[in-house]
């Protein structure tokens, strides 16, 4: 909702710029979720452009479709698709983006190759993922506390499919090159999550498709409540005089499919 939009506003603007998205662009938005960034893209490309938003979840994608319809964006389409097997026409997009989705793919390199295939020569890509664990302490606190309460061993934060799995310095750039992209560059963005309280952050976590719920799924109500209370205690360390500010750091990585550059990318 609006919370996510505000939290990721700077990263989203950066992502659109680094992918070379402008008026008239044909854009592929992979793992789009409920699609607040899809609306931002739709505004940027205007009525002469088009946006295809894909996601693995039909229910979440239905939200994106409703949001686009409410905003009057007739140039936005949605398609249920696996990010590693998009089923789109090769070479049919000017730009591809994936905001906070790629790290959850079982095989992110395959996902990048799919996006590369979807781009026309010269087309741009930009992805947003979380950086390393020490710059994302809210996530590490959530995971370690949930695992402890569930009686599970600590997890390697860089294990494939985890929220922080693409945060190891240099890794995502190497993947872009392996997927065949040129002019690969990564930018770090500090993106603190500003909310009234740690409890408000946990409410956000509970309302999103967070892996924390899966970890706690086997606990009874009292044990689960104890886990959430413990998380709230530990996250209260990030309280400020005016509310709560959870530190996060994001990596924006951009590249280009070989070929002549897109007109919108020649800023």
Task: Output the keywords.
267 residues, 38% helix, globular, alpha/beta, 10 helices, 10 strands, three-stranded antiparallel sheet, Rossmann fold
Any overview of this molecule?
This protein has 267 residues and is an alpha/beta fold. The protein has a single domain (2-258), classed as Vaccinia Virus protein VP39 (Rossmann fold), CATH 3.40.50.150. Helix content is 38%, strand content 23%. The protein is built from 10 helices and 10 strands. The chain has helices at 2-7, 9-18, 36-45, 58-70, 108-118, 137-149, 171-178, 198-207, 211-216, 221-235, and strands spanning 26-29, 50-55, 76-80, 93-99, 119-130, 181-190, 193-195, 239-240, 243-246, 249-257. The strands form 2 sheets. It has a 7-stranded mixed β-sheet, with helices on both faces. Helix 4 links the parallel strand 2 and strand 3. The longest helix is centred in the C-terminal third of the chain and has 15 residues, at 221-235. The radius of gyration is 19 Å and the shape is globular. The chain starts with a helix and ends in a 10-residue tail after the last strand. The mean pLDDT is 94.
Précis, in short:
With 267 residues, the chain is an alpha/beta fold.
Supply the CATH superfamily name: Vaccinia Virus protein VP39
CATH 2nd-level architecture: 3-Layer(aba) Sandwich
Structural class: alpha/beta
CATH topology: the name is Rossmann fold
Query: Unreliable segments (pLDDT under 50, ≥5 consecutive)?
Result: none
CATH class reads Alpha Beta
Looking across the biggest beta sheet, what order are the strands in?
3-2-1-4-5-10-6
């Amino acid at each position: 909702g609006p919370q996510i939009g505000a939290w990721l506003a700077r990263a989203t603007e950066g992502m659109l710029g680094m992918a070379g998205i402008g008026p008239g662009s044909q854009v592929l938005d992979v793992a789009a979720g409920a699609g607040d960034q899809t609306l931002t893209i739709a505004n940027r490309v205007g009525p002469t452009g088009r946006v295809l938003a894909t996601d693995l979840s039909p229910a979440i994608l239905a939200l994106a479709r409703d949001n686009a319809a409410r905003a009057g964006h007739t140039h936005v389409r949605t398609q249920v698709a696996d990010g590693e097997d998009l089923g789109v026409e090769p070479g049919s997009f000017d730009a591809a983006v994936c905001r906070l989705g790629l790290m959850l793919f079982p095989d992110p390199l395959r996902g990048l190759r799919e996006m590369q295939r979807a781009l026309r020569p010269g087309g741009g890509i930009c992805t947003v993922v979380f950086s390393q664990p020490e710059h994302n302490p809210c996530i590490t606190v959530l995971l370690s506390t949930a695992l402890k309460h569930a009686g599970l061993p600590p997890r390697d934060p860089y294990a494939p499919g985890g929220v922080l799995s693409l945060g190891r310095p240099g890794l995502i750039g190497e993947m872009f090159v392996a997927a065949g992209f040129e002019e690969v560059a990564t930018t770090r963005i500090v993106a603190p999550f500003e909310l009234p309280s740690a409890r408000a952050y946990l409410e956000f976590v509970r309302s999103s498709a967070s892996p924390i719920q899966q970890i706690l799924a086997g606990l009874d109500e009292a044990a689960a409540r104890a886990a959430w209370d413990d998380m709230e205690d530990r996250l209260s360390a990030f309280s400020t005089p005016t509310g709560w500010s959870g530190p996060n750091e994001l990596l924006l990585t951009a590249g280009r499919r070989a070929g002549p550059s897109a007109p919108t990318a020649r800023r």
